[in-house]
Amino acid sequence: MRCLVTGAAGFIGSHLCERLIADGHTVRGVDCFTDYYPRPVKERNLANLRGHAQFTLHEFDLADGVPTAAVDGVEWLFHIAAMPGLNKSWTHFDEYNRCNLVATHRLLESVKESKTLKKLIYASTSSVYGKYASGDETLPTKPSSPYGITKLSGEQLCRVYGDEFGVPTVVLRFFSVYGPRQRPEMGIHQFINAVLTGRPIKLTGDGLHVRGNTFVHDCVDAVVKSTAAMTGETFNLGGGELVTVLDTIRKIERLSGRAATIERHPPRKGDQFATGADVGKLFKHVGWKPTTSMDDGLAQQIEWQKTLL
């Protein structure tokens, strides 16, 4: 297949590009290298892709419009690009609106007349459910942050372009993805880095928030398999183990052989109290379920982060 991956230089996007190439597909990557985190981090993500005969990188901002050459002839389109995170969305709403909603609109506009597009996979988030995101896709959507609002609005754009123009879209709601290349501001990355360097973990809240963490390779496998799902469907995509934030820190201590120092901070506005994906619908439609244990996934991320020190 001729594939297009937006956010190709990011955490999930770079892994997805590598998987698609390994499966024999041709991949066009798109990234605008926002300053959410340093460009050298994203360039490191691309190390295995740059120069590969089956991969080309297009650097532009989707919100400015999508060049015809980028989408011409594309059969599978994976829209992974987004401005992530809860905290910054309270103070930089215009940026989140531009990156998550305007960019999605421009992308949909660019393919609404496509004769080759077979599937558009839109990467959404458990944040569309709000503070309590445990269950299946029938949970009410009640975002508790501007970030979640922009991502839910992106889902609705996909629905409208499916209904009115026949854009063949599938929505995947990601739950707490972790693993090698995880973004530096994400919790597990920060916990591991603090433990490995002997610095205190800055823990917001009581640490009893429950997370259903998803290993990145499991996530990518689900994304690829979802190309076989029925158009217009929405699926939860999450790991099978539910652990508290404190439990995750204890696992990191055990796997790294080092003790953590915890520094307590007030809870963040809009943070989720519980996330746990019921992925029964995704399994029923495409036969996917997570296979990586939390211990195995954390061990791989710890070893990767050691190489960054």
TrEMBL record:
Gene3D superfamilies: NAD(P)-binding Rossmann-like Domain, UDP-galactose 4-epimerase, domain 1. InterPro entries: Epimerase_deHydtase (IPR001509), NAD(P)-bd_dom_sf (IPR036291). Residues 4-238 form the NAD-dependent epimerase/dehydratase domain. Transmembrane segments: none annotated. It comes from the Bacteria. Belongs to the NAD(P)-dependent epimerase/dehydratase family. This is Nucleotide sugar epimerase. The lineage of its organism: Bacteria, Pseudomonadati, Planctomycetota, Planctomycetia, Gemmatales.
